[in-house]
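subagent[fold] <- orchestrator: predict structure for attached chain, return C-alpha cells only, no commentary.
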Amino acid sequence: MMLRTALLVASAGASLVGLVLCLVRVPVPGIQLLVFGVITLLALSFERWRYRTRTGGAVGAWQRTGERFEDPETGRILDVEYNPESGERRYIDRDGAQATVRRS
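subagent[fold] -> orchestrator:
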C-alpha cells in the first residue's frame, strides 16, 4: 500500500513538473515527464481495478479438490475449493473461514 501511494505521488509530481516545463517552453523534457506521469497514473488506476478483491465469491458450485496445504504466512492448514463455472480457486481455513479467492 505504501509503495502504491509513493508511486501515485511520484507520477503526479512528474506530470505536474512536465506540465510546468511545457508551459515555460521547455517542451522535450516536459512532454517526456508529462507522458510518463500520465501513463503511470493510468497504469496504477488499471491495476487497482483489475486486481481488486472480488465480492460474491461464494456464489456458484464450489467443489473440493482434495488439496490441502499449510499457509506460509499464518501456519494454518487450508483446503482448496474450485468453481468450474468461473475458474476461481479459494482457500478455506479448516475452521471454515474463507482465506482468499483467486481466479486461475
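orchestrator: received. Logging for downstream: The helical segments are 2-23, 27-50. Residues 2-50 form one domain.
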